[in-house]
Prior knowledge:
By secondary structure, this protein is mainly alpha-helical. Helices cover 48% and strands 7% of the residues. It has three helices and two strands, in the order H-H-E-E-H. Strands 1-2 form a two-stranded antiparallel ribbon. A hairpin with a 5-residue loop joins strand 1 and strand 2. It is globular and about 35 Å long. The two termini are 20 Å apart. The mean pLDDT is 94.
Amino acid sequence: MSVSNLCDELEIARSTFYDWRAKNTAPPCIKLPNGELRIRRVDFDAWLNALPKDAA
Length: 56
């Protein structure tokens, strides 16, 4: 999924996602050769499930 897809699904601003990346709290990302980031659905789902229940 793209960063835009993730942000839309979580209803967050793009800047929030990049803040999470800077703090190493975002889901694992893959950097494509063109520099764009992608998040595997399985990694995203695992990341969501690992969050503390009061954070979700």
